[in-house]
Each structure stands twice: as C-alpha cells, then as structure tokens.
C-alpha cells in the first residue's frame, strides 16, 4: 500500500489488487492538519458572582411625641431596611424587634412603663429584587418578635418599611421623659 499526499492535504492510498498485480483503487483520508482547518474553535469562559452579607439599618433615635396618662402615643420610627447581598438561589430572612421597659427618673416601678405596653406595625413594605416581604403587627416585649419575613427570594434583594410604634401610657404613669431601647435584627 502506498500513501500519496496531494495539493489539498488529502492523502490518497493506493491499494494493490487482490492478485497483487496492477494499481489498486484509491481511498481518501484527511490529514489531521486538514481536519482542523475548518473547525470552529471553542473557548471555555469562567467568571464569579460575588456574594455579601445580610444586614439591617434603622434610625439611631426617634421621638414619639407626648401624651397624658391613660392615652396612647405613637409615631413613625423612620426607615428600616434589610439588605440581602448573599446572592442565594433560595433566599429567606426574618426581621425581629424587641424593646426594653421604658423608664424615667430613677426607673422605680412608678417610673417604668413595661415593654408589653408598646406595639410595632411595619406598615407598607417596599422591595427590590426578587423577595416576598410580609409584615406582622406585634405587641412588643423584652423578647424578639417577628415583624417582617422575607421568603421566595432569589439573588440580592432589599426590603424597606417605616414602622409605627405605639405606647399605651398607663393611667398611673408618672410625668417625665421616658426612654427605652428598641432592638431590631435580621437573620
């Protein structure tokens, strides 16, 4: 058998006849160089999508106004936001709120309004990205209560609300400026 390369890169093989006499038939084979000339090249391309943290922001302070014993004071707390930069395929989170007892003066029992006399209403919630945010009106206490839940999230998302906080002032409340600490967190 004899292999001959022609001008287009094809190799032609001459096969002998069965009897061993004369020229055989021609067969065509592509050389490796000729086979790759017409192929489209592929490039494997990679990149990374970064992920961050789950965080919450809230006002540093808020004043709810004033009221007489036996009435209720209430007011907007200010913008509260959850930012979920974890870039998850299935994202969910829970925002909670708790409050200390409110005290004035020396914080004696007559100068204390219990945390359970206060309420938290998230109100309307605005979101960005893919997340379903649901608010819950709660009576606050010293223990965390769920106030907003984020479910069915995909990728990064945010939720913002301006909660209304109310305090039922007992008829026996002593005059003064009361202070308590409202703690909100997300997990």
Question: Can you put this structure into words, describing what you see?
Answer:
This protein has 187 residues and is mainly beta. It has 2 domains: 2-37; 54-186, Immunoglobulin-like (Sandwich), CATH 2.60.40. The protein has one helix at residues 32-37; strands spanning 2-5, 10-14, 26-30, 54-57, 72-76, 80-99, 102-103, 112-113, 118-121, 125-135, 138-139, 145-161, 164-168, 182-186. The strands form 4 sheets. Strands 4, 6, 10, 12 and 14 form a 5-stranded antiparallel sheet that branches.
Topology:
Layout: E1 2-5, E2 10-14, E3 26-30, H1 32-37, E4 54-57, E5 72-76, E6 80-99, E7 102-103, E8 112-113, E9 118-121, E10 125-135, E11 138-139, E12 145-161, E13 164-168, E14 182-186
Antiparallel strand pairs: 1-2, 2-3, 4-6, 5-13, 6-12, 6-14, 7-8, 9-11, 9-13, 10-12
> Could you estimate the helical fraction of the residues in percent?
under 10%
N- to C-terminal distance: 77 Å
Any idea what the radius of gyration is? 38 Å
Beta-strand portion reads over 45%
CATH topology call of the largest domain? Immunoglobulin-like
CATH architecture of the largest domain: Sandwich
Which CATH first-tier class of the largest domain would you pick?
A: Mainly Beta
Number of strands: 14
| Average of the residue pLDDT scores | 89
Summing up helix and strand content along with how strands pair, one would put the structural category as mainly beta
Strand count, sense and barrel status of the largest sheet are: 5 strands, antiparallel
Count of runs of 4 or more consecutive helical residues: 1
Low-confidence stretches: none
Q: Write down the secondary-structure element order.
A: EEEHEEEEEEEEEEE
Shape estimate: rod-shaped
Number of domains: 2
């Amino acid at each position: 058998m004899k292999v001959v390369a022609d001008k287009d890169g094809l190799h032609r093989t001459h096969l002998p006849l069965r009897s061993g006499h004369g020229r055989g038939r021609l067969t065509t084979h592509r050389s490796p160089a000729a086979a790759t000339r017409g192929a489209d090249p592929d490039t494997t391309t990679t990149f990374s999508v970064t992920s961050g943290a789950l965080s919450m922001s809230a006002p540093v302070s808020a004043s709810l106004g004033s009221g007489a014993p036996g009435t209720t004071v209430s007011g907007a707390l200010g913008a509260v936001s959850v930012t979920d930069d974890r870039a998850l395929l299935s994202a969910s989170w829970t925002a909670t709120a708790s409050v200390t007892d409110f005290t004035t003066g020396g914080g004696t029992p007559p100068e204390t309004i219990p945390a359970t006399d206060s309420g938290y209403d998230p109100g309307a919630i605005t979101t960005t990205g893919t997340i379903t945010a649901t608010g819950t009106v709660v009576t606050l206490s010293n223990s965390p209560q769920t106030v907003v839940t984020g479910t069915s999230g995909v990728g990064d998302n945010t939720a913002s609300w301006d909660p209304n906080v109310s305090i039922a002032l007992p008829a026996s409340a002593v005059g003064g400026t009361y202070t308590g600490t409202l703690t909100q967190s997300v997990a």
